[in-house]
TrEMBL record:
Protein name: Tyrosine recombinase XerS
Keywords: Cell cycle, Cell division, Chromosome partition, Cytoplasm, DNA integration, DNA recombination, DNA-binding
PROSITE patterns: CB, TYR_RECOMBINASE
Stretches assigned to the Tyr recombinase domain: 177-376
Cellular location(s): Cytoplasm
Any single Pfam family the record assigns to this protein: Phage_integrase
Sequence ranges assigned to domain Core-binding (CB) in this UniProt record: 15-134
Main location: cytoplasm
Coiled coil region boundaries: none
The species this protein was found in: Enterococcus xiangfangensis
Amino acid sequence: MSREQLTERYEKEFEKLPDFIQNYLLYLEAIPRSTNTLYEYAKEYRRFLSWLVTEKIVAVDDVSEIKLTDFERLNKDKIILYKSFLNQSPKRTFEKNSDNETAQASLSERNTHRLKVTVQRSITALRSLFKYLSNEEVEEFDEQTGEYSIRPLLRRNIMANIENGGVDSSNAVRKDKIEKMLYLDSDAIDFVEYVYSGYGNTLTTRQAKTAYEKNRIRDAAILALFLGSGIRLSELVNTNVSDLNYDGLYIQVRRKGDTMDHAMISPIFIDYIQEYTDQRKALYNADDSIPALFLTKHKNVAKRMEGGSIEKMIDKYSTSFGKRTTPHKLRHSVGTMAFRKTKNLKTVSEILGQRSTSATEIYTHIVKKEQRSVINDLWT
């Protein structure tokens, strides 16, 4: 999804919400928070308010009519009911006519993970909102005493003791799962080369081979940029041709919080990217009015490739390669390799464009396991 589309969708969500939630989102904008974060929060607030209306917990017909006084009347039991509603939401069904038990098991695992992440995201968004409302102060006039007093917008924070849940409680379990999806050492180079020239050997139909040949140079370049720089999916989607700098071996990206940054690119992957940019116009019928770096064609018209299409593409190639992964795990692969080389979390966070080192601490777990393996085999 392009930045413009994301902004448009966020604004539509924003308009549907009551004013006290709009004020909180405006507060987040000023911090600032990325448009993607704001959009996800706005969706979660609308989901929660819609549930309140549907369950007749609030006596209004539309979510925009909900007031702060309605929130005052909520209690912990209602939030637990909402968590139950989220946990029981229908999972995505298997593809029709699929008789592959392994594929079905994989889909089931992914659906379960998506559901857990949805619950976590919903509760996290609500905890953030309730904390703001209970901390933000307002001046109130008492007609009986004729005096002003200060009180919080929301007198009690019922979300304070609600666990977000929805994900594995053990960080070690989460890190082990991530580790299985990383592309480290020669795996990364082999994977890009597989997409560039090897995947076609697995195809049996002319139609599939034609589609692969049409996009293989672009697809290899996308993976090369992910593994060569560690940028986020949203950053890659929104890059333009003009953002690439071959002399400095970097690409300009807009990080979270709308700050601009130069993401360094490993020279080992640059040839894949340059081959694609050299052929981009011819491959996708693009003229100079199309700024997007990575393109697809719709009815023979070039358009910016969307994040969902890139996720599906990576899932397809990595599953065929034998190690299913995602754009985010490719980013973790870069972080892990960078920590191996530097043993410095600050450097890793700067490479990945992160605001603090807390998000990079996962890499110490992976490297410590490798160190244990070295010590175990040191004298054998």
